[in-house]
# Entry
Amino acid sequence: MAQNETVLAGVLEIFRHNPQKQFSVDQIERQARRDRLGNFTDLVKALAYLEQEKQIITDGNGRYQLAKENTEVEGVFRANDKGFGFVRLDDEEADDVFINSDATKLALDGDRVKVKITAGGNPWNGKGPEGQVEEILERGASSIVGEYTPLEDLQVKISHFAGYVIPTNKKFKKYRVYVSENGLIPQMGDMVKVSLKTYPTVDIMSIVAEHDIRTEWPEDALEQANAIPDHVTEEERHEAGRRDITDQPAVTIDGDDSKDFDDAVVLWKLDNGNYHLGVHIADVAHYVKEGTPLDREAFARGNSTYLVDRVIPMLPFRLSNGICSLNEGVDRLVLSCDMEITPEGERVSYDIYPAVMRSHGRLTYNKVNQALRADVPDSDLEDKYVKVRPMLKDMAALHEVLYKQRHARGSIDFEEPEAKIIVDEKGKPVDIVLHSRGTAEKMIESFMLLANETVAEAYYRKKVPFLYRVHETPEADRISRFFEFCSAFGLNVKADPNDIKPLDLQKVVTKTLGTSEESVVQMMMLRSLKQAHYSEDPLGRFGIAAKYYTHFTSPIRRYSDTMVHRMIHAYLEEGMGDDVKEHFKEELSEAADQTSMQERRSIDTERATNDLKMTEYMADQVGNKFEAVVSSVTSFGMFVQLENTVEGLIHISNLKDDYYSYDEKSMTLTGRTTHKKYKVGMPIKVVLTNANVEQHQLDFEVYDPDAKKRPHNDRGMVRRNGDRNFKGRRNYGGRDKSGERRHKPSRSNRGQRLGQSEKGNRRRPNR
# Structure
């Protein structure tokens, strides 16, 4: 070969890992200079050679792009125990095709499959082709051997199955093979051979397994839970320092379907005109002692995981729905935070202590919102709502004051509707309902925020080790890019990216309220912020403009809160000597890392199951037309969001009325002939063309019956903007055609980006 193979390999790799991107010679030279590939003459020769070999294509105007593969081949799938695999083709001289773990279509080792090539091999560095499984033609395994485990101890019951088998073949080990209740039932630990009747499909439990969410309880943890009394004992009631507040008219306020209640609130006016606000939180740390089996399991789980149709709890149901839950009319142990607050919203004193309380009412958000309406008479309400109605109105008034105070200091508040997926008894999604928060949800959130701030500041002032919930100041370059984005909408932001304050971003939100740009600007702002996490250092809470913040209010479903309760107990009971402080100082770093990691894992699982069910819901609507808004624009197309929050992709190859070029700075796609421009926030009509349930992917096309189709004779420009004949997998949640990671731009979880929501929808508990 006349050309330098190192230069050829390096240049081709640039294209392979950016298959959608068009490069000028100058761009290739800059990249090659960084990679030390050769001089300019070598690069020009390499480009000419690669074009001659049909490895790359040109638009004739000095821009080059990878020549995409689009061939389908057949072969046998060979799995790797890490999840990926290779397909050995029928053509023995052909290279094996690499299949990434998210492109296997759940093929098993030995299956005969049809594969679509998504990236050709690189003959100059030995890298083989990459592809995705399109169809499983023939199964290679009809039975497996493995160890049997019964399901009777699982907290998550799976209908019609008696147990499961973990295959001894390591290439099958990531799958559980569930054994039907019909037929022979083995014993725990038996080695069995089972016939395979059905093969892997995507369902909620497969997603749970994929994300390593723990569903089984160790026997010693269950034994400990079962040994805990189901009522408050006399000994517990009279523990040193524990107060009896059972006479206070405290209530729980949660969603209609809530079953674990870890916070109660009470409010009255003092003689001096101030408010007394009591926030009483389930005393989980009293029951889950450090180092016990329950504690080890709760630490490993990190938090409860809230899925579409079930909850995988951090604690066994005996605790989470029983003795730790502040159920109506029964005594429960709590850690309390009493606060005295002026009518202007200033907290002037507080007291944190253990207590025994009794819930005087299990209230729901919907009915509290009804009770807060002036036009609803007492006769339309249940007696328990009538009794506490004056207190609820005072709570709403205090919330308004607290909200204004937070707003004044710069708290960034977003009001976006949340989508709830409704499923039938078989788990099939039947509707997606949007819910906007009312006063009840907002006032409980205000009280939880204040309690969390109060507890964090109290123990910071005591100069003892503590676990904080933090949200650091965003990076200047990301804020600069956000400001550039805002300028495209005519928003003149007067703020220094190197010294950004929450109030600066709050002003941007305020400017867009009620405008068509509101949701888009908020979405882009969220992407510019850092993720909230846990830390032993009080790094502040940028999103709510709080200097000190912790998680104190949800110990049933967050280990972080249980850890905070444990420290409070120790400091109250054992004092704040060096031994106690050193003990927690040694534990906090690991606790912060573990709780942060498990939170992200649960959020990813919740998001994946939501995507699955949303895709299932839309699968019956292929061919239907929808109103949508452009939520993101990329080089390979644009994502659109429907009114029900469902998102999908319009691939650039499906923009058939023109040839579109992508402008990264303005995040727009512009047609060469029509000059039509697609940008973030733009309303658009679309038609659903494909719903791939296994990959959680929806494909749309623009619905414009009057649009003319682009001509077929300008093949250079078609190639420049994406071969329109390419029907490859969109893969917006996995890897792109080069194998590089490419994420679907998700609706950012406020718990990760802002973290201010402490209650509200139980399916998002970590906000």
